[in-house]
Amino acid sequence: MSLALPKRLKQSLQVALSLALAGWIFWLLYKDLDFSLITAALSEMHRGWFIASILLSIYGFWLRAYRWKLLLNTDTDTEAISTLNSFWALMIGYVTNLLLPRAGEVARCAAVNRLSGKPISQSLGTVVVERSLDLLFLLATIGIAFLVEAKLFLRLFGELVDLGALAQSFQNNLPFLLGALAITGIAIRILVKKYAASGWVNKFQQFARQVLTGIQSIGKLDKPFAFWASSVLIWLSYYLTMYWVALAIPSTANLSASAILLVMVMGSIGMVAPVQGGIGTFHALVAYILNVLGLELTEGKVFAVIIHGSQTLLVALVGLLAFGASLKILNAQATKKRGESF
């Protein structure tokens, strides 16, 4: 008797679990915080720096839409998409992700399909490439942060991990570890051969093809310099957005540029955690690193909730605007087609 859950029910349970986990982490972190501290920080905020951070965030979204457009338009068999329509599709994906984890990627590709006719499968391949690039840039950012704050990194790592005990344990168990690694490799090879025709292997092969298609699209770019320059500027906009919010709040206004880089790294790690929208994990990691940098834990929590909350609200507002703009474009396209048919 099969106990497999229906796909829709399984997805609903995954969403509910992600939301519950995010809510629990957030509650655990903020249950003892006096929320008047947040309102006080907002009232004392430097409005100029904060508004500048919001405008820069929108520019960062636009840069991402521009970079995505460059990838999408390597397919010359379909209608080219404009940066504006790519922007609307991107924001539709972002606002969808606020409601349904991982559904945003499909939603924005579906929006591109409606707006320009580009196949969803091809668009998904470019999204995979974007995610891979983001991971590379995150690792590069972590590397830069390590170089500028090496002593702090080593101190934090030393507090979390006993390096001497770890090295001794690795040395004592080296033969066992090598044997386990060899057995694992053989087992994986046997399983892949045995289940080569099964669903999960086919899904992996399809995913690999999408990645390959996306990577090939980079090689077909008409403007490779613009692509890589926009990639750098996207991450620079992330950094400056966080820096300007820090300048806007009195408790964080005196943090150094390298300290803000560390905060950005911790926040980025929190955002990629498997919880809804980075809720809880972003706040916990940002508050933790700010506490290490000398702020009170409550001040770190206040900063985290202000920057995360403002960005979430911005995505929601621009995402809803994107839905409206897309509907207007589609209606105009339908009207034009009806006029041409007469």
From TrEMBL:
Primary localization class, coarse: membrane
Keyword Transmembrane: yes
Gene Ontology CC: one annotated term: plasma membrane
Source domain of life: Bacteria
Membrane topology listed for this record: Multi-pass membrane protein
PANTHER family: UPF0104 MEMBRANE PROTEIN MJ1595
Protein name, as recorded: Uncharacterized protein
Species whose genome carries this gene: Nitritalea halalkaliphila LW7
